[in-house]
């Protein structure tokens, strides 16, 4: 180890904390150590929950405008440290500098919108008249559920962390935050800023550790009221089995199809497919991960896709290339495995299939059939299969015959076709004539099947972290 390796501490009960045991975060571009974070133990995790539980009641009883004041101070520090956060993202997840700045700007807008929307979470009132109870009035306010465990992924380490943390905090919950290891430098820098913003002790806690050692104790603690997790379906399903009484909000994987009909605007369609499939090297749950194109126009669309993908720049995140190194070697190995299986079964490589350590050139595989693993498995890499269909019902069946159901796209100039197909697709959202995507952030974001559980967004998240509590007033008629 060299002395210049950056080290971040966890935040427990308002204090920056380390225990002398460290986890190394690897830079995907250089495969060298980008920094280190503490490897906490089960005993330390238990203490985190104790402090979060103790702090939550006082935070809940604080007026919402005062909570917002604390959170606005934190937001200002995020803006101040924009350059530092962007550099951390470039180093630990190989995100281009321009894209990193964009993510931070989007996150600041998310915070501002969330804090405003929280003020509009008004109580609801009901009378008992319609049930024959004339002298009865109920007022239901939204109260916090308690302790939120927020587990974020590597690919959007600021946006997908804040989208859990801030809705939970502004509604009066305390938060235990666990960022992915790749992304924990960013996550623990956010924690450092929370301390600087004087977020009350124990209200927000940020931890790090090896999932194999603390994973179960992290999600099984009886103090947890809500678990908000973004990551793989495998881990998400394990959380659903291990968690005890906690409400679950799970944002998992996807195999988002883009269905292209024979009357689509091919130039516009190709542009959006390439952006949807290859932004951030395809490492997005909402990335287009398979194209289903009608046979009659496949020979026209495929050359356009090839031309556009060959124009993508490949290289370093500091050069703002379109394609940068994927997160780790296992991602590369999985992509190679999927490509080999497809080629061995008769598919053809249109472009790509070139690798240099963690850097994978954008790859399009044609003549893919449903007998190939690439038709079904999520590569989380710049790898796009093209499947040809004849009848629209065939495309719908292929799209639906999947363990995933996050999003889909339909490209056509016929609104009747678009709406008819959209109604039949078993996904959370259908994008007509556009790529699958998470935003705008105030839209409801939901997956079905192995793509998730619960609803996110801005108002949906505020509701997910609260519960209605009623006060029923009864009186006797005196007049």
TrEMBL record:
It comes from Spiroplasma ixodetis. The keyword rRNA-binding does not apply. InterPro entries: Ald_DH/histidinol_DH (IPR016161), Ald_DH_C (IPR016163), Ald_DH_CS_CYS (IPR016160), Ald_DH_CS_GLU (IPR029510), Ald_DH_N (IPR016162), Aldehyde_DH_dom (IPR015590), ALDH-related_metabolic_enz (IPR051020). PROSITE patterns: ALDEHYDE_DEHYDR_CYS, ALDEHYDE_DEHYDR_GLU. This is NADP-dependent glyceraldehyde-3-phosphate dehydrogenase. The keyword Oxidoreductase applies. Belongs to the aldehyde dehydrogenase family. Residues 22-469 form the Aldehyde dehydrogenase domain. It comes from the Bacteria. Keywords: Oxidoreductase. The active site is at 251. The lineage of its organism: Bacteria, Bacillati, Mycoplasmatota, Mollicutes, Entomoplasmatales.
